Predict the structure.
Amino acid sequence: MKKLYLGSSIALASLLLFGGCSEKTAVQPATINISQKCEAPLINYRFHSILQGDFNTLDIKSDFVKTHLLKGLKESNCFFQPDSSIYGDYELRVVYGTSNNYQKQSYFIKTTTQDDNVIEVQISFSNFRETRIYTGKAKASLSSKSYFGVKDSEAMLSQAEINQTTIDAINAAIKTAIEDFKK
């Protein structure tokens, strides 16, 4: 019996030492919804432009950002886009981008990595009187652990996770704008 136990222990230790093991997890943020609705629009606006920032490591498309931004503005019923512009209407400009923060910690037998991808959307409403700028951010994270220097294939964010995180950043900016225009 002792030989069986000793043999099993040696086999398990050999597997861990030479085979290594790894685990990885994706941390998905809580979905940000636009909970504030307006009985009537607070402002009229017309879409002016959308620009990609200096960094877009997740390859987010301008059309995706524009579509979901205009959808969120419309669904809130706080912003109205008339067919023709009227003097005093706001112009809507959008800038978006991503940033990445990669951290790695190594110990004797374990290495831990944390990869944070932050998506930022900045919307500005401007007219002849004022310019108001609102920023929304959302983060998707990947973390992995490897033991004895052996790790599995690289963990990557799925397109669905990137899309949801982008929508969350858009909605965060819209929520901030609604709160400000209601004052």
Remarks:
- Residues 46 and 84 are 8 Å apart (CA to CA).
- Residues 1-29 have pLDDT under 50 and may be disordered.
- The longest strand covers residues 90-106.
- The two ends are 77 Å apart (CA to CA).
